[in-house]
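To: structure subgroup
Subject: Chain for Friday's discussion

All,

I'm putting the inputs and outputs inline so they're searchable in the archive.
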Amino acid sequence: MSVSILLFLALLLAPSAWGEGQPVILVTDKEARLPDAKPSPYEDFLKQRGLFDTFRQFSSPKEGVSAKGPEISLIRPKDGGIYAGPLEIDVRFIPRTGPVELATLNVEYVKLWGIDITGRIRPYATKEGIKLQNAQFPAGNHRVKISIGDAGGNFSSRTFSVRVQ
């Protein structure tokens, strides 16, 4: 095969930057039917008093390293939003103390135990964030946790929830 044919096939078969075209199945029906994780009693306590901040971020630094992991900014979907059909995912990673290390990316579908969906998201992730236009979720409530670190060993996590009708 000539180089031009190989290049054409690579471009044709590779996912685009926005995941256009075929829907990208992030969560299967079987995974969505698994039992949900229970929120912590602390979270329920804060929600009952109107003190729970759904946009907070948690940091899990290495021992002796400050909690300065990259900021995870959720542009789309809106946390707690209700959607019909495929979702657009737009997440930005904003460095704080060092460059973002894409190799540390971990995306987990939160159920009774975490389901690692990093491999399904990785083709749409860069050091700047995640961009995917056609993310497929079954109907129901879904929680996704995104974690990322930087070159200094600092980590941040962000969890968001959506309902798909």
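Points worth raising on Friday:
Residues 17-164 form a domain with the Immunoglobulin-like fold (CATH 2.60.40.10).
The longest strand covers residues 100-110.

D.
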